Amino acid sequence: MRFRLLLVGVLVLFLLPSPQVQAESSSFEEDFTLQWSHDFGDAYITTAPLFAGERLFVRTSASWGGSSVPTVASFTLEGELVWSESNAHSTHHDMAPLLHLMAGNGSCGAWPEMMIVGWSDGTVEARSPSDGTLLWAYETEQVTWGVTGMMALDEDQIIVPTRTGLVSLCASDGSMTMEATIGLGWRNGVTVGAEEYFLGDESGVLWSVATNGTTRSVDLGDGKIRHAPILTSAGLLVQLQGQQSSTMYVLDLVNLSTIQTLPIGPSPGIPTAAGAFVLAFDSEAIRSLSCSLICEEVDRVPFLSNGEIGFAHDEQYMLPYNGNEQGWGLVNITEYGRLQVQMATTGADGYATAAPGFTSSVTHGEMLAFGSDGGVVYVHATTTKAVEPALEQNVETFDWVSQGIVFLLYLALGGAGVQLLRGNWASMLKFLSVYMLLIGLLVIDQVAIQWSQTIDELDTQSENDEWDPSWNESWRGTQIVSITIGGEVHAAGGFEGYTNALDLTLAACEELGVQIETESTRIGTYVLSFDGETGEGWEYTLDGRLATLASDYSTIDSSTRVEWSPVETR
User: Fold this and answer.
1) Domain that residue 517 falls in
2) Distance between CA 128 and CA 391 in Å, rounded?
3) In angstroms, what CA-CA distances link 565 with 281, 416, 476, 530, 568?
4) Total count of domains within the chain
5) DSSP state of 25
6) Is residue 424 part of a domain?
């Protein structure tokens, strides 16, 4: 009997699953190689290079004591200079990110594809991305400097934070349709809300500007607001930069009252929404925040960065370490908000503030562009051009639930074996019943996914393949996203190379200026809200057919239409 028990015990030990090692984020140096670079001379690059279509666009700012003129340049993805335009009247503060607009139309007219450039002399230009031709220009007031903050698109209106306020320009011809005066601003990007715009100034005042130009404000105290506020489920997130330290405020959208405050470090950079979390960083650390009911810090990693952070490969983010020859931080944020940071060498190492530019396509693979304070742009690309499907990505965290079930499986199997050796058939069947139940628990997620995919394949319902007349004709044959928020449809098209519905939706939200909040689960990622609107939940269709899978598991082709709407409107 003892020998039999020993034998069963040895078998169980051999069958026990070995612990998994937590998968690390892929190394930048292993995945990417430098393809080309371009030196702009004694200038510096302070905002992210921008990929649009088959081009890379880079803007520079004049360096102190240098002779180079602030410039916007367009390159092919192979590094050939296509066009370059300069502004001899601009100053040392050309930090407004470029704004790319696809062709469209609205109540104030139609417009072609455009690149919007805000200059520090107060000029706002619309240029043709293909050859740099000036389409229209508008002059705003310059007080030492002019436009330095992030602009935004609101339907057919370009919303521009100026040195002294905010203007709304018709995309078709650049005519001014609204103007508001606020406090003096610097690098104070604007956020588009449901019926108003939010931005801050150099006196620590947060402003709300209605579409008709009326304003309301709240003074947050002694400090400066140098970023576009972030709309979250908890409220409006605003950083107030102080002399020695800074404070993060969460404000009520209705009356701009303070809901809560969180202390952060000195010289904070420009925070960004990262799925269900917010990434913030300063001279002390990178922080991940969860802002559902309230905003709370989930994790932090010591770091020093004071400019921009940008989306990169493998669902990661990158930002420069603002120190001498320190490289760049490659940030992975897990589904629970934990941070994993690796350092990478890009060529643009050292003191820097610009985020990287990123693109992914079937033709050129994944590409990253880094701009340095030395005025050089470095472009890296993956060695392979194939884009991996989302289902093949490594799981970033150890799955304790699955491993626990597997452990119990072997215990149940071992127990059945012991009862078999004893000749106790009834007890053996009980152990086998537990074994089968555990098997069911282990595979139920994948069964649900496969069942949903089978239903999609067998679904013979007629598809609503009608072309929306409000869509731009240039979108035909490309990937399109439309989102119905508060009864109003927001649409973007002309996308290429995306392989699942979630990635395409995230790209569209970035172009439309729509804030998206998601939640990661064991069976995929689900959208919680668009621009803070949750309703009874969100659902989407693919080419007119209701999707049954989580959006990151829904594969799409080169001409898929993804249409989001609240569940209650069905």
Assistant:
1) 473-569
2) 38
3) 34, 51, 22, 10, 8
4) 3
5) P
6) yes
